[in-house]
Specification:
Layout lengths: L2 H13 L2 H8 L3 H15 L4 E4 L2 E4 L1 H28 L4 E8 L9 H9 L3 E8 L1 H9 L5 E5 L7 E14 L3 H4 L6 H4 L3 E5 L3 H10 L5 E6 L2 H9 L4 E5 H7 L4 E3 L6 E9 L5 H9 L2
Parallel strand pairs: 3-4, 3-5, 7-8, 7-9
Antiparallel strand pairs: 1-2, 5-11, 6-9, 6-10, 6-11
Length: 282
């Protein structure tokens, strides 16, 4: 018993005539009759009886019809779903989101994608950048959005943003400035996101300056919260300052203090759906 036989059987059961069923199936009558006989032979039952009005199903035929309808429908659904998956129109994308990437997810492109392909879903994992990269490397997620700097070994990436550093502060004198310099910063008790410490140290050392880090932490939102409580002034990327400290920050004037959000994925072949998501970020 195969799908072709079941489709032929259903056509005859619905049309109640071999001639009409053959036309519907775009085949000649002899091969249709042959397939039906083979099906009856394999099942060892009579599926049809001839009447004055055409062909009717036997009790065994009616029982097969209920199963055949389900089997053929399931096969058609499976075929459709497989094709959609192969074209990246179906499935779940597992994406890791660093805390500092909240402004990038969900993007307008994601909304557009799910409008056209409503069967695409997202499984979001929230970590710091290092946690996202670890999940990416061990295969827990398909894509990640992380902040530079990080080790790119075995990772491909696409830059999404280019940002400068800002100083979140409660000091009104600093907030009235258009920008602050490194010399301004060494006069402050600084709160830093630990991943930038080496970059900061190199820049201060290059100018012969020694900063005071009052607080070090692993999340830029934590740095902002401590600054807002008056524990010092926080150095954080511009996008994070805009989200969580609007009107409470001033840009840092130092060209090398640039950071990027990047879309990242494992080097090598990716699934069609993952590739479709990558292509959305232009």
């Amino acid at each position: 018993m195969n799908l072709k036989q079941l489709r032929y059987f259903l056509a005859v059961a619905e049309e109640k005539q071999i001639t009409a069923a053959a036309k519907r199936l775009f085949i000649a009558q002899p091969p249709l009759s042959y397939q039906l006989k083979q099906l009856e032979k394999e099942l060892e039952v009579k599926l049809f009886v001839r009447t004055a009005y055409g062909i009717e199903l036997t009790d065994a035929g009616r029982e097969l019809q209920s199963y055949a309808e389900k089997i053929v429908a399931l096969a058609e659904t499976a075929e459709e779903q497989v094709h959609k998956t192969a074209k990246g129109e179906l499935g779940t994308i597992k994406i890791g989101s660093a805390s500092s990437s909240v402004g990038e997810l969900p993007s307008a492109a994601f909304v557009k994608l799910t409008k056209y392909y409503p069967t695409v879903s997202f499984d979001v994992f929230e970590e710091n950048s290092f946690g996202v990269l670890e999940k990416l490397r061990n295969g827990t997620i398909d894509l990640g959005i992380v902040r530079t700097p990080f080790n790119h070994h075995g990772i491909e990436s696409k830059t999404l943003t280019n940002e400068k550093m800002t100083l979140v502060t409660t000091d009104e004198k600093l907030l009235n400035k258009k920008a602050v310099t490194l010399k301004d910063l060494v006069k402050q008790s600084l709160i830093i996101y630990r991943r930038f410490e080496n970059i900061f140290n190199e820049s201060f050392a290059h100018q012969g300056l020694t900063p005071f880090y009052a607080v070090k932490c692993d999340d830029s939102r934590t740095a902002i919260l401590w600054a807002q409580k008056g524990m010092g002034s926080a150095l954080v990327p511009e996008s994070i300052a805009n989200l969580y400290a609007s009107g409470q920050f001033v840009p840092v004037k130092h060209a090398s203090w640039q950071t990027h959000l990047q879309l990242v994925w494992r080097s090598g072949k990716v699934s069609p759906l993952t590739q479709r998501i990558i292509d959305l970020f232009n």
